[in-house]
Every structure is written in C-alpha cells, then in structure tokens.
Amino acid sequence: MSDAHRAMWERLNLDLTAHDGLLEVLGKFYGDIYMSQENRLKGMEYMDFVLSEVHGLRIKEIQDAKAQGHKVVGTFCVFVPEELTLAAGALQVGLCAGAEAGSDLAEALVPRNTCALIKSFIGFKLARLCPYLESCDLVVGETTCDGKKKAYEAFADLAPLHVMEVPQTKSLAARDLWYEEVMRYMAVLEDLTGVTITAERLRAAIKIVNDRRRVLQRLSALRAADPAPISGRDALLINQISFYDDPQRFTTKIGELCDELEARVAAGQGVAPAGTPRVLVSGCPMAVPNWKLPYVIESSGAVIVGEESCIGSRNTRDLVDESGESVEDMIEALVDRYMKIDCACFTPNEERQENVAEMAKTLKVDGVINYSLMFCQPYAHEAMKMEKSLEGKVPTLSLETDYSMEDVEQLKTRIEAFVEMVS
Ligand code: SF4
Ligand code: SF4
Predict the structure, then answer these.
(1) Is the pLDDT of residue 408 over 80?
(2) 184 falls in which pLDDT band (50, 70, 90)?
C-alpha cells in the first residue's frame, strides 16, 4: 500500500500496526480461498481489484466525496433503506463485521455468548481497524435480534448512531410502525445532509438501487444452469462487494460479468463438471471476509448455486415499485418492499420457508445447508423449522459455526458426508 494510503489511514485514526496485520491476514486468506480457483470468469478480475483496494482506493473515493460535502452512512442490516440515503446525497456502506479481529475487546461490552457478527462490529470499532466505520458520519442500527438491539446501546457511546425500530411481525400495525420509522429516518438524513429529499431525487435513487438488484437477480438466475457457471465463493464475493462499491459502477461491471456468464452457459461450460452436487446455503449473512463455509463446501465436492441470505437473495429478491409520482407514493412503495424481507427476526416467518423451497426448486439443488452463526437464536430456531418443511423435498444439513478456524476439520467431515449422501 502506498504512503498516501497510510497517511489516509493515519488521518482516520486507525491503529496502523493492527491494521497492517489485518490486511496481511486478509490477503493470505483471499489468496488461498479465491486465487486458487480454476476456470474463473474474466469479470472476476474487477472483484479481485476491488478487494485488493478495499481499504485503499475505495476509501480514497469516499474521502474525496466527503471533501465535496457528501455524508457517509454505515449500516449493518438490509433493512436500512439505501434509496433514502442516496436521495439525500449521502453514500451508504455496509459495514462488514465478518472477521474475528477485535472480538476479544468486544467481550468487555457484550456477553461472550453473543454472535460473531455483533462481536466483530463492536471489536472493529474498539480496535480502530475499519476505515469505513471511521469514515461514517452516521451509523444506522436496527432493532432486529436481541443481540443487536442491546449491542447498539453499547455502540452508541462509540459512534454517531441512529437506531431504526424494525417491527417483529407483518401485521398492519407493524407496517404503520415501519412507515413511521422510514419517515423518521428521512428526517434524520435531511438534517444530516441539509438536502431535502424531493420526488426527483428519490425516483433516481430507487432506480439506482433497483438496477443493482436487477443485475444481481440476473446473476442469480444464470446459476440455475448445470454445469454451474460461477462458483458460490465468487457469487458471494460479488454480493459482499455490492454493499460498499459505487452502486452504478458495480451494476455496470456485474452486467458485463453476466454477459460472460451467459456465453458460458450457452457453451455448456462451468466451474465444475455437470452433475456436481448443487448446494443452496441458507441462513445468517456472511459478511466480508467470512468465506470459511463456502470454501469448505466447495472443497468437499459440491458447488454452491445460491445464497438465501441478506448477502444474497434476501437483499435482491424484491424491487421497489417504480411507478410512484410523489415522495409520498414512493415512501409507501419503499415501506411495502422492505416489509417483505423474510428475516428470521420476524414471527411468524412462514414466507422464508416458502422462499427457500422455491429457490431449491428453481436452482435445482441437491441439498440445502442451513447456516447459523453460533449463538444466533433466530436462525437456529428457523433451521429446525426449515429441516421439517423441506423433509421429503430436499435433504438438509444444519450447521452452527463462527469466524474461528478451529472447527474447519469438523465441518469438512460433516459436509463431505452430506455431499456424498446427496450425490
Ligand atoms: S439477518 Fe435480519 S438482522 Fe441480519 S442483516 Fe438480515 S435482515 Fe438484518
Ligand atoms: S447473526 Fe443472528 S444473532 Fe447475529 S446479528 Fe444476525 S440475527 Fe442477530
């Protein structure tokens, strides 16, 4: 990394020694898991480049935008309506929370038996490791699971924070609550940026975010082909990068990659031979650089053809209706779209089981792997329901893990047995 990058990190008050260590581990991990793949698409070079510059050029772009007066909003959940953030002239970045670094520090603020994702975002802040977090003018939390809700109480002392109240049911009263929360977020953004969200600004923002969803839907649909034209690892990386790359540039690049994929599908080419067992991974989000499970699955003779996750289909399945004329119409459309999210924090949440069954059918999967982060109650509960609802339709395997590497061998043993069973 250049001296200019180091000077930028210093200005952001990162712990440079710890940050160097993180980049070194990340680089090695990426090399082992990503660069070792064969038959990769040419379009993945852009992703490799973005990842190699994840703390460099992209942070520089963000700093340049800030210098021009734009604000930066960080989020941890797909419930935060990016359309409003963009309409207010701010940049939105998904804060990753996918590494173990700093988790020991986090245990001073949250209980040990808290999921790895929560410990990671607290730990990254305490250890001064994340240039995205340090660039944020506002972090937006949400009252989803209990772990997050309580963690934001501690996080409020560490960063400027706004917490959105996400309802727990899909009742009409819950929709009214969510509508009020969306309006409250709009007011917070207007106050932060000094920008009034007009119909024109909101319409343009809805289009930008929908376009990104559309191109990711296109990518997802192409994965129904056998042989699978792209690895699950690469598809996950694309979804992860969608949270912090410039949305319009990202959409263009993934459009090009989909063109390449289409040609591959037409030529009957893939990353693994036709007939390779096809797996759908379903459950908790996998934030950068949480690539452990996909790596183990794809090193065990299977190929991942879908991610039913917030870093996957849960974030891209539903579009916002673009027909609204006024800000009011568009807010209603946003509220409706976000109320469709089938996060396990909702009760009941039958639609998630239906969505997984539908994905399993469309993507012609041989097995579903339910993935829960250790100590994540909502997804662990739903893994049990999912096993029952898919019984007789598609074999399932439920796994609980975290960000450590200690259980890799144990995971491999279970996954290899599962892959053999579904082969
Ligand atoms: S799993 Fe639920 S709480 Fe987590 S990011 Fe997704 S919607 Fe938000
Ligand atoms: S993984 Fe589970 S426990 Fe962790 S933040 Fe998400 S919903 Fe909450």
Answers:
(1) yes
(2) very high
Predicted TM-score (pTM) of the model is 0.97
Task: Count CB-CB contacts under 10 A for residue 20.
Answer: 14
**Mean per-residue pLDDT for 259-286?**
97
Cβ(117) – ligand 2 distance below 6 Å: yes
Q: Is 286 in the pocket of ligand 2 (CB under 6 A)?
A: no
Ligand 1 in reach of 285 Cβ (< 6 A) = yes
User: What is the Å distance from ligand 2's center to 292 Cα?
Assistant: 17
Tell me the ligand closest to 97's alpha carbon. Answer: 2
Rounded to whole angstroms, how far apart are CA atoms 45 and 33?
A: 15
Extents of the domains making up the chain: 203-319+344-422
Residue 263: CB atoms within 10 Å:
12
Pick the CATH number of 203-319+344-422 from 3.40.50.11900, 3.20.20.70, 3.40.50.1980, 2.60.120.590: 3.40.50.11900
Q: Is 312 in the pocket of ligand 1 (CB under 6 A)?
A: no
- Mind listing the pLDDT tens digit for each residue in 198-217? 999 999 999 999 999 999 99
Q: Which residues contact 308 (CB under 8 A, 6 or more apart)?
A: 280, 281, 282, 283, 314, 352, 355, 356, 359
CA Rg value for the chain: 21
